[in-house]
Task: inverse folding
């Protein structure tokens, strides 16, 4: 027979080679699918809205970039911006800058109790409003107040929260009597007069100045409440045209800002007089509701503009240099500020006779910076809003009638210090505390000029983590001019998720408290402070253009005020495809003397930040907040994730196939000893040792040829160098095992001189001693099987260690988690297949002596041994082999774990131990 026929006849060689080839095909297929899934996941989530972030200078954060790119520090000039836009590789170059902080008093809070008097033509005056309810359909009069006045105690309080703890800002009480109003008709010169008057004996309710008193109107009794704390917002500047190009359709809210007047047509006085002239010359009701047209933009919020202009003019705040600043303001707020009023009915002695209830109102989603209408209009229990009977009067509400105060103090981005680096590459940070900022103050004088008692409330100190910004030389009070609104959540969605890059100020980057000051694990989203100078900030309250920045910061000429330029390269495709052109563009920008950070291929990553000096007690002792997390940006995340997980993929493939090849080698070495009888016959026929070795190696050559063909085919199909290297390694191991096996056929003189009465012979008196005798008599096969089991256990340990190490190897970014999840299932399948192949090959090795084992078990059965004793023989044989294999398996698994995945080495050793323990009962079932 030729070598091929002998190879097929041997069955064992054919079986082991077949198992190895099938394992190669399945493993390469699974690894290829895993790699494809990894590449697809990385490519789909590694290119954000822009590719290069340009700044004058930036702190080196070790590849971890903080989201506050609008720092207020400037450094990039408009000439440099123009040069960037002229580069051939630039598609979009969108500048952004932090303008300042803006503080504003909210409209005076009030408590409305329904005291509706019914329709009265002299008071309602709805004839000119088509949206008003027809007089015949007005409901009958109703009121939550009694006909005769009752005495009430009102307790107003405001509570702010940072998400971790609440702080009561003030708690003020007022008492007085109120009741149902009535209409009084009086005869006056020229006709009759209708007025509203409270019931006889009503004293009204008056909180301390600067709050007003109580008054009746057609629909309600309104009680003026204590002033709410001031609220501070930040403002950022963008180029609306390039910003829309950057955001796509999500940036359509900036369209009105494109129509803002040029810099020389923004004088606040001139614009205010223009709107005053509209009312002098006459304006239609419809035009007022839609908003008067101003250079192609319907100014829906014209009423707050007018009232703030008139108030600023009366107070002498506006000068000839004051400019109007066009703004797109944020809808809603993340500031947690709750205003409550507890209402109690009392007797003349001050005792409570009836708890009417407590009403609460928050800023919440109804708040609009600069223009918000009645953010703290609270309703008496049981009241209803009947003001809509007059029609849609919303456009005529004064809103926030006090002009905002613009300041650059404590407005810059927070500064951080680096801490320890975790195993997955995450870097701990520490915030740098600054000065204390005092909030919750009352104004020195009320609107009527009366002095205000400052002891009504205690000022609150909030820790600032920000520095002051530079300003120009010509500061003048600006006038806010609201063009529209934007939704911060929608902007955040447009920026993406895994590949989200910071837009700069108006896309929120929340903080989550993960450990409090005592080290206890918590999970609380933090809220921004009232002063907006703390570590936590919300989306910018408003967006303006760079002419608006110049007006707010007092610049007369072009200055280098651009904080950052977000550049999108003019190249399609994934981050990997675009990488050469993006790098080229970044180098051209660096040649201008600017810092260009390539963010294509970046991903968001949670940074852990220690927050010291967050609060202080009455004695001035400072206390830390704890540890917070914020989403930062990990540069080159795609490269790091792709490289590390690709290496893990290939290592799994190598370990699976090379482990199988080693087990195949152990099987063939053990099997070849059964061919010694054939070798002896051939030697008796005159064959030399070399010819016999060549005769056996020819059979192995058939298996090697099959493995080579399979390896070449798989390498060509996958077109992967790694597959070729692994296939070559498997072939080398198989050929090496063949040469070792051939050496076992060397002729040895064996003299049968076994003594008949050797005291060293083991007496067979139990299944354990018999099993020991059998294994001692067949040491070579026992050692071969033990080595095979040890190799199997070591391979299992290595595979388990690699699987456990995948999350660490992937890194800490959001892309890391997504990429790790994409290869998790293929990796598990690859590892499980490797374990199954290894187990199968150890079973093949164990079956070489199967016929002999069945013979001696039959002999023992004939001698009267029962099935339980025979089962114990099988178990003890495998247990002893497992005992020999255990040190090799555990130490081998530990060594592989330390080499490939040090952080999971202990788990590798445990997996090796479990693999040997599991092999023992499985192998026991082979021989029945």
Result:
């Amino acid at each position: 027979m030729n070598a091929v026929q002998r190879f097929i006849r041997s069955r064992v060689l054919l079986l082991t080679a077949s198992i190895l080839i099938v394992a190669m095909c399945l493993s390469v297929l699974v690894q290829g699918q895993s790699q494809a899934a990894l590449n697809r996941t990385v490519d789909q989530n590694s290119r954000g809205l822009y590719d290069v972030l340009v700044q004058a200078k930036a702190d080196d954060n070790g590849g971890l970039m903080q989201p506050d790119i609008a720092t207020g520090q400037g450094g990039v000039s408009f000439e440099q911006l123009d040069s960037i836009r002229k580069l051939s590789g630039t598609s979009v170059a969108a500048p952004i800058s932090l303008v300042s902080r803006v503080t504003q008093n909210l409209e005076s809070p009030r408590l409305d109790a329904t005291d509706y008097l019914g329709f009265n033509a002299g008071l309602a005056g709805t004839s000119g409003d088509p949206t008003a309810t027809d007089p015949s359909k007005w409901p009958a009069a109703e009121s939550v107040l009694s006909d005769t006045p009752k005495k009430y105690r009102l307790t107003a309080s405001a509570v702010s929260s940072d998400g971790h703890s609440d702080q009561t800002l003030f708690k003020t009480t007022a008492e007085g009597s109120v009741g149902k109003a009535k209409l009084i008709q009086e005869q006056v010169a020229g006709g009759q007069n209708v007025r509203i008057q409270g019931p006889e004996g009503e004293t009204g309710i008056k909180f301390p100045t600067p709050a007003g008193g109580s008054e009746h109107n057609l629909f309600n009794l309104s009680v003026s409440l204590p002033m709410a704390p001031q609220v501070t917002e930040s403002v950022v500047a963008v180029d609306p045209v390039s910003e829309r190009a950057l955001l796509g359709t999500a940036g359509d809210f900036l369209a009105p800002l494109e129509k803002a007047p040029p810099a020389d047509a923004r004088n606040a006085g001139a614009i205010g007089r223009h709107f005053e002239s509209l009312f002098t010359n006459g304006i239609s009701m419809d035009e007022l509701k839609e908003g008067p047209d101003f250079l192609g933009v319907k100014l829906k919020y014209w009423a707050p503009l007018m009232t703030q202009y008139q108030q600023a003019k009366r107070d002498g705040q506006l000068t000839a240099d004051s400019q109007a600043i066009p703004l797109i303001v944020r809808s809603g707020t993340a500031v947690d500020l709750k205003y409550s009023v507890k209402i109690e009915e009392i007797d003349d002695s001050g005792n409570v006779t009836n708890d009417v209830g407590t009403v609460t109102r928050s800023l919440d989603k109804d708040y609009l910076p600069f223009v918000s209408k009645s953010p703290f209009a609270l309703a008496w229990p049981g009241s209803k809003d009947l003001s809509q009977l007059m029609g849609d009067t919303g456009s005529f509400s004064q809103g926030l009638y006090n002009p905002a105060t613009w300041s650059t103090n404590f407005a810059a981005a927070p500064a951080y210090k680096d801490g320890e680096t975790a195993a997955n590459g995450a870097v701990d940070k520490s915030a740098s505390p600054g000065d204390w900022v005092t909030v919750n103050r009352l104004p020195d004088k009320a609107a009527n000029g009366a002095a205000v008692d400052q002891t009504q409330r205690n000022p609150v100190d909030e820790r600032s983590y920000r520095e002051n910004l530079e300003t120009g030389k010509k500061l003048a009070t600006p006038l806010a001019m609201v063009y529209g609104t934007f939704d911060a959540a929608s902007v955040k969605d447009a920026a993406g998720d895994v590949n989200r890059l910071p837009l700069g100020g108006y896309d929120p980057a929340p903080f989550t408290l993960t450990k409090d000051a005592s080290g206890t694990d918590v999970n609380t989203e933090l809220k921004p402070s009232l002063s907006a100078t703390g570590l936590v900030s919300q989306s910018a309250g408003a967006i303006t253009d760079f002419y608006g920045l110049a007006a707010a910061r007092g610049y007369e000429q072009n200055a280098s005020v651009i904080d950052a330029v977000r550049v999108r390269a003019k190249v399609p495709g994934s981050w990997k495809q675009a990488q050469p052109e993006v790098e080229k563009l970044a180098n051209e920008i660096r040649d201008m003397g600017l810092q260009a950070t390539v963010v294509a291929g970046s991903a968001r990553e949670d940074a852990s930040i220690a927050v010291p000096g967050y609060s202080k007690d009455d004695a001035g002792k400072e206390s830390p907040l704890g540890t917070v997390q914020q989403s930062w940006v990990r540069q080159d995340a795609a490269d790091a994730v792709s490289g590390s997980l690709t290496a893990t993929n290939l290592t799994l493939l190598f370990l699976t196939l090379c482990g199988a090849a080693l087990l195949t080698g152990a099987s063939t070495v053990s099997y070849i000893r059964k061919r010694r009888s054939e070798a002896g016959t051939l030697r008796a026929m005159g064959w030399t040792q070399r010819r016999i070795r060549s005769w056996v190696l020819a059979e192995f050559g058939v298996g090697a040829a099959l493995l080579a063909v399979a390896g070449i085919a798989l390498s060509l199909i996958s077109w992967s160098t790694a597959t070729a290297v692994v296939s070559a390694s498997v072939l080398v191991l198989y050929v090496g095992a063949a040469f070792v096996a051939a050496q076992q056929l060397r002729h040895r003189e064996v003299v049968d001189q076994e003594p008949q009465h050797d005291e060293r012979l083991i007496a067979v008196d139990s299944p354990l001693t018999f099993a020991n005798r059998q294994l001692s008599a067949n040491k070579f096969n026992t050692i071969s099987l033990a080595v095979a089991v040890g190799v199997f256990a070591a391979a299992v340990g290595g595979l388990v260690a690699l699987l456990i190490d995948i999350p660490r190897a992937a890194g800490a970014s959001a892309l890391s988690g997504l990429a790790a999840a994409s290869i998790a299932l293929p990796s598990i399948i690859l590892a499980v297949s490797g374990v199954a192949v290894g187990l199968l090959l150890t079973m093949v090795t164990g079956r070489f002596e199967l016929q002999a084992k069945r013979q001696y078990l039959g002999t023992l059965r004939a001698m009267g041994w029962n099935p339980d004793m025979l089962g114990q023989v099988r178990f003890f044989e495998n247990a002893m082999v497992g005992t020999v294999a255990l040190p090799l398996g555990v130490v081998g698994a530990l060594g592989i774990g330390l080499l490939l995945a040090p952080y999971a080495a202990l788990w590798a050793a445990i997996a090796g131990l479990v693999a040997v323990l599991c092999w023992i009962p499985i192998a026991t079932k082979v021989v029945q």
